[in-house]
Amino acid sequence: MPMTATHRVRAAANWLNLTTPLGLAVALTGRARLRRGPEGIIVAEGYRLRYPLAGAFTVGNVVATASDIATLEARVPGTWGHEGRHAWQYAVGGVWFFPTYALASGWSWLRTGNPALRNPLERHAGLVAGGYVHPVTGQPTGRVRARKFSRRRAP
């Protein structure tokens, strides 16, 4: 797929806010193989570090995965679009994406026991596409607290 003007804007923003250079450093630290992907994304396949625990993750315009994107997309259709939306979030938020994501994950974990289900950044990127919700049943795939917070009625 050719790079559109909007993809070029995203790529430039992520270079200027230094998240893509950081993503490249993370990928190289994880000894991933780098290649150009569609939409101006840099694909880092064969990432070897055990953190973060995810099928794929994005830093700037770099999408890293322990396997390869084709296998991941076959297993969880829509993953590429999900990670592309995260790249847009970096373009808008820059390095502020990191503390924002941490706070949103903490809020989600407190509410559901899962760091993604109520995380607005993951919800915007697409929970099903990110593999967080089963595409047929719509049920969460991660661990969710059985007891939810609720208000008690006064006697």
Q: What is this structure's SSE topology?
A:
Blueprint: H1 5-16, H2 19-29, E1 33-36, E2 42-45, E3 56-59, E4 62-65, H3 69-75, H4 79-93, H5 97-112, H6 120-125
Parallel strand pairs: 2-4
Antiparallel strand pairs: 1-2, 3-4
Short description:
Keywords: Membrane, Transmembrane, Transmembrane helix. The chain has 155 residues and is of the alpha+beta class.
Task: Report on the architecture of this protein.
It is a single chain. This protein is of the alpha+beta class and about 160 residues long. The protein has a domain at about 5-95. Helices cover about 45% and strands about 10% of the residues. It has helices spanning about 5-15, 20-30, 70-75, 80-95, 95-110, 120-125; strands at about 35, 40-45, 55-60, 60-65. A hairpin with a 2-residue loop joins strand 3 and strand 4. Helix 1 packs across helix 4. It starts with a helix and ends in a 30-residue tail after the last helix. The model is unreliable at about 145-155 (pLDDT under 50).
